[in-house]
Structures are given as structure tokens and as C-alpha cells.
Amino acid sequence: MSETRKAGRGGIFFYVQHLLGIGHIVRASRVAQALAEAGFEVTLVTGGTPVKGFPPSGVRHIQLPSVVASTTGFSALADGEGNPVDRAFEETRTGMLIDAYRAASPDAVIIEAFPFGRRQMRFELLPLLAAIEESMPRPILLSSVRDILQENRKAGRDEETLGLIEQHFDGILVHGDQRFVRLEETFPKAGAFADKIFYTGLVAPQKPAPSPDRFDVVVSAGGGAVGAGLIRAAIDARDILADRRRWCVITGPNLPQEDFDRFAATTPSEVRIERFRPDFPSLLVNATLSISQAGYNTVCDLMQTRCRPILVPFAAGGETEQTERAERLVALGLAEVVAEKDLDGDTMAAAIRRADGRRAPETPPFALNGAAHTADIISRLLARKASG
């Protein structure tokens, strides 16, 4: 047993599966790092394609065979080579996950998104729940979710979620601030388990120091798998406006290579094109304007700066989460929005003009210390369990 376990902080087994973007692994890594810094022994289990820089050092990492979403609607899975996932693949992953759980023998288990999302992973998560229930002693089980949930479009999904929460979960870690949005606003049945909900605050990074690289405008496409249209519109808008500010375009690691090559070949040399910048939050400190999607982590990064955001919410395949977040920020006067369906150089140029005419935003009145507060919540839950 390690010194941290002897010291009574406990072991955490943390499961996260990202399928398209990198937001889930980024947020989970921030939480895992805070847990480790608080003295917990953390095992982070990931099942998506590896992302450079995540998880952080100091966290034990187990990588399952990778799966990704084979469609933008997340309705099917493919392995790392693009082949459809079959039963043999599922059984292999499930066995690895259960073995890792038993070897860790944790005091608490965190499952990111499930049972509110990641239904595609039930083939391994339902066996994990069964293994947890069979454990002696049984660890506490927590679901970790972002502030705004994807709207369920199929009948019976909410009832299934409620059943799993009632039967298995001891708490729901909502990584948001209820002054911005409450869980019941995007999951109306949350009142049924109100006593299990814990708001952590937004999982933002520590306020970064300015990067030595200085850019006035930072364009970012998240993971990049669906970001080509945003990048194209931003570059076209620069040409329309004859904008001569210093621009940095971060395509994301998952942008198809042919798209990256096309942008690199056709973009003016004074625009920096990069696939990935681990210092992205630091670039925003110097910037006056950001053009991005409205993903959770990007917005958290922006809230730590006075950079003026233009948001293009990802809405393909019926996705609602980013649109909901963007509209709330617009209502607070904290962002401009361009809808994906309206995205082109002209609409982006108009949004840039509007953003340039606004005052730099003040720090919003939201709690941004969600990672550290998550560690405090788990400490209290484990202490409560120990005291009976």
C-alpha cells in the first residue's frame, strides 16, 4: 500500500472515454491532477485515441484499446484503425477494464459522463458496475458530468438514467456553477436525485501566465475532427476585413491531414498554423479576440482571460450542449455567436466587427476552481462513509 493510501486519502479509479473531440480527456485530466495533488492515489483509465500532454504526470494511466465515434451522431463505434467494433473487441476491453479496477482496489470510482451519456460503452460499464457492487468493501461510485448535458432525443433514456443512478451511484459531480446553469435545466428529472448532486464549479485551469508567443487573434477548432468549416470561415473573414493583426490558427490534432495541408498551403505566411498548442490558455492571455467552438474546456479557458470570444457551437448530429452554453454566454454579454448553419466568411467578418466594438469582458461571477473543489467533495464523502 502506498504512503498516500496509508495517510488515509484513498485511491481513486477514474474512467473517461472521449469519442470525437478532446474535451472529456482534458477536463478529466484536470480533475485527476487536482485529486493527485490533494494526496489521492489516482488511476485514470482512458479509452479514446491518445492525446499529447494528457493525462498529466503524477497520475497512473491505463490506456484501453482505442475506440472513436464512427459517425458525428455517435451512434456507432470504430477502433483506432477505423474498423467497426465487434464483440471480440468489446470482450477484450471489458476484461482489461475489470482487471484494472480489481487491481486498483479503489476507495472511490468516478465514471465520466455515464449514465447521462456514453451509452455506447454499456458493454463494459454495466459489467464494471456489477464488479463494484460485488466488491467488499464497496467503493463509493460517482458520475462526473459537465455543466450542460446533451438533450436526450429518444423516449425512455431519462428513465434508464434514473434507474442506474438510484441503483448504483452515490453522487453526481456536476462540473459547473448553479448560478450559470442548474442540472435540472438540461436534465429535467434531476429533482429525483437532488440529494446526490454536488456542484463543483467550472473545471478551469489555473490562471495562466502570458505566453512568450503573442497573437492578437487565436482561432481554435477543439480536437479538430469537425473544425474545418470554422477555420475556413475565420481565414476568409480575415481576408474580407484585410485584418493585419497577428493571427494563430490551431487546427486540433484530429483535423484530417488533407485539410491541414490545404490550410497550410493557402494561408498567408503571416498567419501561424499549428496542429496543437499545449499552452493554448496562455495564448489567450495576450489575445484580444478568440474564434472557437463553444466546448466546455475552451469556454473555461476563455473565462480566465479578458479575450473577446466569438463562438461557433458544434451542432451536427442534433448536438445541443454547445449551443445552450453559447446562448447563455450571449445573454450575459460575454460572447458573440455564429451558428454553424450560417457559417461563412461574411458572417464571421460581421461577428469580428461586433466583437471588436465590445469592451473586454470582466471575469464572470462563476466558480472556476472545480478541480480542487472536486477533491474536497470526495474527501468529505469518504469521511462520511468512514464515520458510518
List keywords for this structure.
7-stranded parallel sheet, 6-stranded parallel sheet, 2 domains, Rossmann fold, disordered N terminus, 15 strands, 388 residues, single chain, alpha/beta
Structure commentary:
- The protein is of the alpha/beta class.
- It has helices at residues 3-6, 23-37, 87-104, 122-134, 157-168, 228-241, 257-266, 280-286, 296-303, 321-331, 345-356, 370-386; strands spanning 11-16, 41-46, 60-63, 67-69, 77-79, 108-112, 140-146, 171-175, 197-199, 217-220, 247-250, 271-274, 289-292, 308-311, 336-337.
- The model is unreliable at 1-8 (pLDDT under 50).
In short:
The chain is α/β, with parallel strands linked by helices. Helix content is 36%, strand content 16%.
How helix-rich are the residues, as a percent range? Answer: 25-40%
Multimer state: single chain
Number of domains: 2
Give the class from helix and strand content and strand pairing. Answer: alpha/beta
| Number of helical stretches of at least 4 residues | 12
Order of helices and strands: HEHEEEEHEHEHEEEHEHEHEHEHEHH
Query: How many angstroms does the end-to-end distance come to?
Result: 23 Å
> Strand tally, please?
15
Average pLDDT: 91
Tell me about the largest β-sheet.
7 strands, parallel
**CATH class descriptor name of the largest domain:** Alpha Beta
CATH superfamily annotation of the largest domain: Glycogen Phosphorylase B
Shape: globular
Q: Report the uncertain regions.
A: 1-8
Radius of gyration: 21 Å
- Strands in their spatial order, largest beta sheet: 3-2-1-6-7-8-9
CATH topology name of the largest domain, in short, is Rossmann fold
Name the beta content range: 15-25%
CATH architecture field of the largest domain: 3-Layer(aba) Sandwich
